[in-house]
Amino acid sequence: NNLIYDNMAGTDGTYSGFGGGLLLSGYAGSIDLVNNTIADNTAEAVDAQGPSGNGGGIVVMTETDSWNPLSVTLRNCIVNNNQVTSNGSTLENAAGDISNAIVASGGAAGSTLDIDYCNYQALRSQDGAIDPLLGSQNLTAPPGFSLEMPYYLARSSVCVDAGDNNTVHMPATDLDGQPRPQDGDSDGNPVTNMGCYEQVFADPFPWNLFLPAITSGNE
């Protein structure tokens, strides 16, 4: 139930940043992110190498000399429109949404990253290579935020009723105190939304303009 937006890691042209929205780093155990919206964050890349200067939304890594494996799980999350920039320009091949450095960062063998029922554009490894989407039921289409309320979902959003009600640690209410789950798409089956808000808003009304026919004379 966290909304993490409009943050920046690093300084333009001076210092690289580790994760514009979040740096998920640990020595052992588990990290669970459930029903979060992480959007419009930026990481600055001076050299665009390694986890530094990568991961506009999230960088996932284990600490060096970890004594046990680290398990990182994302469920019912929206990680969207995050970017990596260098001197004000967007780096298209950098890890805009999620950078997976969990193995390359030198932690214990067996550390894992598992992503299910989430909306994000691309997952990239530490070297910048694009990795396939992890897990299942992940979406890459734009989340469809409401124009009426920032970071709430419009009724037509692909993220409405697209989460998993059986997610461990799923909160009973959303960030605004609304109960979860609700039937956001009116199909009679309450399913939690992806992201931090459960309430949805109507799409903009499709205004049409009709002009009367203009005639002359006796016609």
Explain this structure to me?
This protein is 0% helix and 28% strand. It has 219 residues and is mostly beta strands.
What is the strand and helix layout of this fold?
Elements: E1 3-5, E2 8-9, E3 22-26, E4 29-34, E5 37-39, E6 42-44, E7 58-62, E8 70-75, E9 78-80, E10 83-86, E11 89-90, E12 98-101, E13 112-116, E14 119-120, E15 123-125, E16 130-131, E17 153-154, E18 200-201
Parallel strand pairs: 1-5, 2-6, 3-7, 4-8, 5-9, 6-10, 7-12, 8-13, 9-14, 12-15, 17-18
Antiparallel strand pairs: 10-11, 15-16
Low-confidence stretches: none
User: What characterizes the major β-sheet?
Assistant: 5 strands, mixed
How far from one another are the termini? 64 Å
Side by side, the strands of the main sheet go: 3-7-12-15-16
Structural class: mainly beta
What is the approximate shape? Answer: globular
Radius of gyration: 21 Å
Put simply, the count of helices is 0
Q: Per DSSP, what share of the residues sits in E-state strands of 2 or more residues?
A: 25-35%
Helix content: under 10%
Number of strands: 18
Element-level helix/strand string: EEEEEEEEEEEEEEEEEE
Task: Give the averaged pLDDT, no decimals.
Answer: 85
Gist?
The protein is mainly β and 219 residues long. The protein is 0% helix and 28% strand. The chain is built from no helices and 18 strands.
